[in-house]
Automatic annotation (TrEMBL):
A Pfam family matched in the record: AMP-binding
GO MF annotation list: medium-chain fatty acid-CoA ligase activity
Name of the protein described by the UniProt record: AMP-binding protein
Domain AMP-dependent synthetase/ligase span(s) in chain numbering: 55-220
Superkingdom of origin: Bacteria
Record key words, sorted: Ligase
């Protein structure tokens, strides 16, 4: 295996030693995306039998959880065998290693001996796709922005959000074998696949080997995968289930999935409410580019005071948490108990 991170190239027989010798000072001068890679590798090679990972909110409020390294190896083995990935093949990591999708691309390469090229996560990956790759993973936004260059990748898995009808149709016209995946941090990456193109194209997500699905009393998906240390994990995803395959119908909560980043409106509202003193709420609305975009409704007329408050509030938010549009309304709809009724 050869690991390439920007201009840096490390051979597998020197990888663990090289990672262990990295100092905090050396890490601190790296760009954040590189830091995330080496921080993960340091934790992967340490003496602990687990790593800590941040959940995205698929099964509730985001939180930090422990994932066993054994489960991660089992997940990598499952994917590698499914796609017949092996030593000497070339893979591309173009996602943030803070998140499970990025971490698992690294683990799959370590497990098989695949050469792994890691590039800065961007929407348009045209420059990175000048080279041929056997395998890669992207979010729908990256796929859409890089569509003209995707045939440099032989097999592509797409996760972090649903593939919309328009993108699905466009992917049927290219030679790259494309799969939409379903999974989350709690399941150590994907537990189901849907072929987007080719002879096995389908609208159904099929369970990966060793994974079993059932329904909760709310018609939300429940996952059992003993080899991934997952036992009766109830999600917020409403599905139609048949023969251990499912069609995804939507979410049962207010989570907004924007460009593969899952946003929790209520948590972001808590940050904003310190700066404005009028009723408001955040919600998602369909967006051609992002899948969904975060927007804001405010119960007030537009004013300089509110604008100044929002400017200060937005400076405290992550870039993904800033609403793409703000709408002012004379009044917001409320429930009988007086709570604001969200438009979703």
């Amino acid at each position: 295996m050869i690991l390439k991170v920007g201009e840096l190239t490390i051979h597998s027989d020197l990888l663990e030693e090289s990672i262990s010798q990295l100092s905090a000072q050396q890490l601190s001068i790296m760009p954040q995306w590189k830091q995330n890679i080496f921080v993960f590798l340091k934790s992967w090679f340490d003496e602990k039998d687990y790593i800590e990972a941040q959940t995205s909110g698929s099964t509730g409020k985001p939180k930090t959880i422990k994932l066993s390294k054994e489960s991660m190896r089992n997940s990598a083995k499952m994917t590698n065998e499914f796609f017949d990935l092996g030593n000497g093949q070339n893979a591309l990591l173009c996602m943030d290693a803070r998140f499970i999708a990025g971490k698992m691309m690294i683990v799959r390469s370590l497990a098989t001996g695949m050469n792994l090229t890691i590039v800065e996560p961007q929407s348009d990956l045209s420059d990175s796709l000048q080279t041929k790759y056997d395998f890669s993973a992207m979010v729908p936004l990256q796929v859409r922005e890089s569509l003209h260059a995707l045939e440099s990748v032989k097999t592509l898995i797409i996760g972090g959000g649903p593939v919309d009808t328009d993108l699905d149709s466009k992917l049927r016209e290219i030679s790259t074998k494309c799969y939409s995946t379903y999974g989350m941090t709690e399941t150590t990456s994907h537990v189901a696949m849907r072929a987007i193109n080719g002879s096995d194209r389908s609208s159904w997500y099929r369970a990966m080997p060793g994974v079993n699905f059932s329904l909760s009393d709310k018609n939300t998906l429940v996952i059992d995968a003993p080899h991934l240390n997952v036992k009766r994990l109830e999600t917020n995803d409403v599905v139609e289930l048949q023969n251990n395959s499912f069609k995804w119908l939507g979410r049962s909560d207010f989570t907004v999935n924007s460009g593969g980043v899952k946003l929790q409106p209520e948590s972001i509202e808590k940050k904003i409410e310190k700066f404005i003193n009028v009723p408001f709420y955040l919600t998602g609305t369909p967006d051609e580019k992002l899948g969904e975009k975060l927007i804001m409704y405010i119960e007030s007329q537009e004013s300089s005071a509110i604008k100044k408050g929002l400017e200060k509030a937005f400076q405290t938010l992550d870039q993904y948490e800033i609403p793409k549009e703000v709408f002012y309304r004379e009044s917001l709809e409320r429930t009988e108990s007086g709570k604001i009724k969200r438009i979703v």
